[in-house]
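User: Here's a structure from my thesis project, written as structure tokens. My advisor, Dr. K., wants to see whether a designed sequence matches the one we expressed. Can you design one independently, without my sequence as a hint?
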């Protein structure tokens, strides 16, 4: 276990614990009559951010345009974005537009899709927002540290006719490993984080602040867009006394439903759009609890009802979102590809339990591989070094493909494919209830998950675990669509 303590239930205890530890042109067009080009400027630079309340000092962070998160970018579906990115850091960087189906040259992967942006230089990204939904942006250069120091921001693409709500709210969730002086601990890339669950912090924020309350009104309906920007923390949010309806996952519409067990589970990089109706009494309050880590549950924020109701009852407005222009995979005709994730602490033991270990195989080496600088995590027996890799899979462009992924490790992995969305079609041989479209799927230890897609966006695309320490320690590959 990490020597950094997990957050506790009480806010005061939580804060004390937090600060006392030592620590494409080829893609389908989105439609006619799209709005004009929107141009924005993003500057990546050191700054100070008010992550925790006074009397603690502001925290030295890395920010887009001086804030954590970076500016919220809102576009209309079909609108074109031109982002002029200036690098004022002392090291190279890029910007990856997570979940957006952009042309390969705009994907922001250093050395694979573009040269990294040198200190003092600029790079211009330009693409069309094909899909409506909740997305985000972050660096892909040394992301385990650059994201961990605060470089990220939300990107919202609005539907032409969104569902009616009283408020459209974005919560960017993150956790930070802070010292007693409220500074970011500098122990990035340490062996424990790399080989276990990643860099888990001791301070959780919403939109760059440790939250106290979130004001709501009786009878109000909110569309809550959740973005998990943490390096490694998995959230399982319990909106106690409320029944959230999930209407989108990773930006893609899904049949409205109450999540299993009432918990909204988000691995790193994942997003969820919720419809929340507030029906409790004026003046009341209820906590939102993160229950993913059993025995270490903590209160994220309190929902605080105002004294004056907005209306007597929650509205009965339609909540189903229109589908995005994604090509439907033909499962019966799809080409199948086997993908096995291995390595990490206890990885060899798990592979032997699953009958997958082979004598002399790098896939079963786990910590032995790390000791020989061969990587800690593996995809199909290979650990990545840097972003320039020979393709691990070749997908025929325009064809349907199924990736059957086996997690032969002792840890969860949120697996992200760049440039595409995919349907999650089965878990451990059982068909999924909602066949949800996602771009990042959380795969549990020893779990087998099948995803399906049409490979319609040409280029070399990153495929990796979005626990950023796992990616840096080898769990990354390239999938070529041609």
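Assistant: Designed independently from the structure alone:
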């Amino acid at each position: 276990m990490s020597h950094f303590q997990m957050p506790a239930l009480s806010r005061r205890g939580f804060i004390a614990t937090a600060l006392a530890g030592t620590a494409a042109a080829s893609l389908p067009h989105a439609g006619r009559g799209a709005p004009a080009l929107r141009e924005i400027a993003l500057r990546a630079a050191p700054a100070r951010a008010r992550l925790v309340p006074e009397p603690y000092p502001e925290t030295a962070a890395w920010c887009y345009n001086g804030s954590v998160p970076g500016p919220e970018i809102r576009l209309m579906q079909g609108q074109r974005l031109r982002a002029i990115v200036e690098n004022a850091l002392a090291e190279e960087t890029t910007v990856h537009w997570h979940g957006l189906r952009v042309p390969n040259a705009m994907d922001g992967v250093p050395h694979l899709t573009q040269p990294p942006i040198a200190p003092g230089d600029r790079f211009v990204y330009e693409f069309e927002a094909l899909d409506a939904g909740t997305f985000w942006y972050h660096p892909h250069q040394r992301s385990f540290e650059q994201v961990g120091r605060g470089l990220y921001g939300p990107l919202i693409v609005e539907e032409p006719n969104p569902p009616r709500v009283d408020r459209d709210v974005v919560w960017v969730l993150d956790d930070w490993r802070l010292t007693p002086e409220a500074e970011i601990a500098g122990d990035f890339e340490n062996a424990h984080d790399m080989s276990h669950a990643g860099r888990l912090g001791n301070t959780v924020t919403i939109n760059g602040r440790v939250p106290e309350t979130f004001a709501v009104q009786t009878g109000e309906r909110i569309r809550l867009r959740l973005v998990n920007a943490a390096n490694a923390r998995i959230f399982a949010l319990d909106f106690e006394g409320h029944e959230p309806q999930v209407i989108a996952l990773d930006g893609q519409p899904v049949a409205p439903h109450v999540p299993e067990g009432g918990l909204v589970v988000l691995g790193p990089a994942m997003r969820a759009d919720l419809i929340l109706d507030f029906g409790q009494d004026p003046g009341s309050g209820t906590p939102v609890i993160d229950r993913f880590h059993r025995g270490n549950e903590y209160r994220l924020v309190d929902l605080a009802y105002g004294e004056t109701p907005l209306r007597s009852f929650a509205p009965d407005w339609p909540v189903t979102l229109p589908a995005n222009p994604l090509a439907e995979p033909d499962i019966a005709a799809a080409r199948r590809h086997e993908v096995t994730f291995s390595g990490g602490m206890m990885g060899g033991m798990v592979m032997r339990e699953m009958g997958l270990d082979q004598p002399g195989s790098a896939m079963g080496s786990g910590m032995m591989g790390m000791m020989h600088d061969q990587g800690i995590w593996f995809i199909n027996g290979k650990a990545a070094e840097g972003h320039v890799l020979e393709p691990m899979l070749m997908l025929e462009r325009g064809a349907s493909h199924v990736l059957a992924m086996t997690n032969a490790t002792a840890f969860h992995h949120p697996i992200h494919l760049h440039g595409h969305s995919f349907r999650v079609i089965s878990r451990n041989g059982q068909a999924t209830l909602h066949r949800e479209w996602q771009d990042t799927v959380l795969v549990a230890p020893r779990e087998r998950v099948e995803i399906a897609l049409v490979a319609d966006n040409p280029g070399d695309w990153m495929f990796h675990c979005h626990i950023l320490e796992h990616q840096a320690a080898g769990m990354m590959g390239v999938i070529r669509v041609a």
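When you compare it with your expressed construct, this may help: DSSP finds six helices and 31 strands in the chain.
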